[in-house]
Amino acid sequence: MTGNMTNAQSQEGLLVHGLTVSYGKREILHGISLDNMRPGRVTALLGPNGSGKSTFLRAVAGLTASKGEVVLKGRNLATLPVGERARIGAYLPQSLPPEVHLQVLEAVMVARRAGEGVSAECALSEAMEVLEGLGIADLALRYLDELSGGQRQLVGLAQALVRKPELLLLDEPLSALDLRYQFAVMEAVRRETQARGIVTLLVVHDLNIALQRADDVVYMREGRLIGQGVVMDVTTPDILADVYGVRTRLEVCPRGLPHVLVDGVVEDSSEEEQRY
Ligand SMILES: Nc1ncnc2c1ncn2[C@@H]1O[C@H](COP(=O)(O)OP(=O)(O)O)[C@@H](O)[C@H]1O
Ligand SMILES: [Mg+2]
Q1: pLDDT tens string 145-195
Q2: Residue of the nearest CA to atom 6 in ligand 1?
Q3: Strand arrangement, sheet containing 26-37
Q4: Distances (CA, A) of 235 to 14, 88, 147, 210, 251
Q5: How many helices (H) and strands (E) would you count in the chain?
Q6: Cβ pair 219, 260 in contact under 8 A
Q7: Cα–Cα distance for residue pair 142/121, rounded to 1 Å
Q8: What are the residue ranges in the chain where pLDDT is below 70?
């Protein structure tokens, strides 16, 4: 038993070392290194607007030039052919899938078949399976350009999942969704992550969703890592003050779910220092 635990804990997932990104002369990510993110776990990436979350995901996906190393299960992703890297890691951008005149089912099938010799029959059944898992099978024959933003975001997620990635990078996948779909999507992401042993990293803004639905968290501020680890171990009023500049209380509801209450903003500490 103990042996298994140790095995699971040391199971190699995603490692990031010294990831640095610059746009022109401006350095945006300042050498971010992250401990092993294990397969089967959902990590929420949190931080204020402009802290570099999207840049980080894009750099891990290999879509932005960067320095440093990104290693997935022992493979340095930078050394893989572009097609192989794209197959291993699925990235869902913050922007919504385009309003093209294509049926949902077709769009998901195309994503499944991209770069791989999968039969149409096989792609069809796998696409339907993913749509069912996300609770949007009823949209299969609708056209993307007649869907709401939230519905299109779900189709984007279906396109990412259908490719059976080993690494799933989701940039604000909940932002256009109503409460019911936010819950459904987080459950689907968790289920797929666990069932397929995916390393999942997603940007969310709602701290309570992260507290209740993610396994681990990564906190960023101004292009730097502030904290990483199991959600409830790392999330403290101190770290939230540091990351967001807010005063908070963390409470546990009668059903055992943690939630955060924001009481106000932190006083400017530089002024305080000057007073002493
Ligand atoms: N293509 C780009 N060119 C220049 N600067 C960019 C570009 N994309 C993002 N930035 C800058 O990088 C910083 C981090 O942005 P981003 O990664 O989008 O943050 P977040 O996703 O946390 O809101 C911001 O200051 C933003 O203005
Ligand atoms: Mg962003």
Answers
A1: 999 888 888 899 999 999 999 999 999 999 888 888 888 889 889 999 999
A2: 23
A3: 26-37, 14-23, 67-72, 75-76
A4: 21, 30, 37, 10, 12
A5: 11, 12
A6: no
A7: 20
A8: 1-10, 115, 268-276
Q: Give yes or no for residue 243 CB within 6 A of ligand 1.
A: no
Token pair, residue 170, equals: 């989701």
Ligand 1 centroid distance, CA of 203 (Å): 14
CA 52 – ligand 1 centroid, Å: 6
Q: What is the CATH number of the domain that holds 221?
A: 3.40.50.300
Decide: 149 in ligand 1 pocket, CB within 6 A.
Answer: no
Domain range enclosing 76: 2-95+164-235
The DSSP call for residue 77 is: G
Distance 63 CA to ligand 1 centre (A): 14
CA angle (216 as vertex; 212, 220 as ends), nearest 5: 105
Ligand number nearest CA of 45 is 1
Q: Whose CA is nearest to atom 26 of ligand 1?
A: 50
Counting ligand 1 atoms within 8 A of each CB, the residue from 21, 28, 63, 221 with the most, and so the one to mutate, is 28
What letter represents residue 159's amino acid? Q
**53 Cβ closer than 6 Å to some ligand 1 atom:** yes
Both 191 and 227 in a single domain?
A: yes
Q: Exposed, middle or buried by CB within 10 Å (0-12, 13-18, 19+), for 65?
A: exposed
**Distance (Å, whole) CA 173 – CA 53:** 13
pLDDT at residue 185, as a whole number: 85
Q: Does 246 share its domain with 275?
A: yes
Task: Please report, for residues 24, 155, 235, the alpha-carbon distance to residue 92 in angstroms, rounded to integers and kept in the order given.
Answer: 25, 10, 26
Q: How many domains does the chain have?
A: 2
